Amino acid sequence: MTRRALSSTPRRVEAARALTLAGLMMLAAHGIARAETTGPASATVCEGCHGLHGEGNAPAGIPRLAGQSAEYLSKQLEDYASGDRANPVMQNFAKALSHADIEAVATYFSTADAPRTVIPSTASVPQLALGRRLARQGSEAKRVQACDSCHGPDGIGVLHAAPYLAGQSVQYLTSALTSFQLRTRKNDPGKLMTSVAGQLSASDIAAAAAYFSSLPTGTP
Question: For residues 137, 140, 146 and 150, what is the CA-based torsion angle, rounded to 10 degrees?
Fold first, then answer.
């Protein structure tokens, strides 16, 4: 081996070490970033259906959790665990959580930032118009107040009072309103939703669900 080759060997070794160190640093940084965006261990089971960041699953009727208030999310989980809100799948998951777990899960999803996947609406213009009237004006004939009076302008939600509806899927909103109408869901404070939904027809429910689903996702 020549003297020049011998002299260049240490430089090559140092260069290789530098590249290795840089690679390790990049992997470490990636790991830290991933850890910072990962929820608590208790949220892992939720992510299987609701998505890593609470984006939901529209075709399956699974709601978005991202950006809902921690207070609302905590109440729903507590109600599932106690049986006040009936759903066999959610009840099994919620019963396995401690109060601290529920608080951690609710806080994580309330601060999660999930992009919305827009699903083109198949609703007709008259149907969307009816949904908008119910949302903004209600129905005097049916003695139904405007949805927005509780859920905020265009259903963006009201912190500590009502969840956002804007951007939730048609499937979920229809299911939720129907369950209140049929009184299979009874965990609404003061039974207000039970009263309102009980006055709506199937076409009213379909229109309201289509309208709120067509709006940009709202967070209070």
Answer: 140
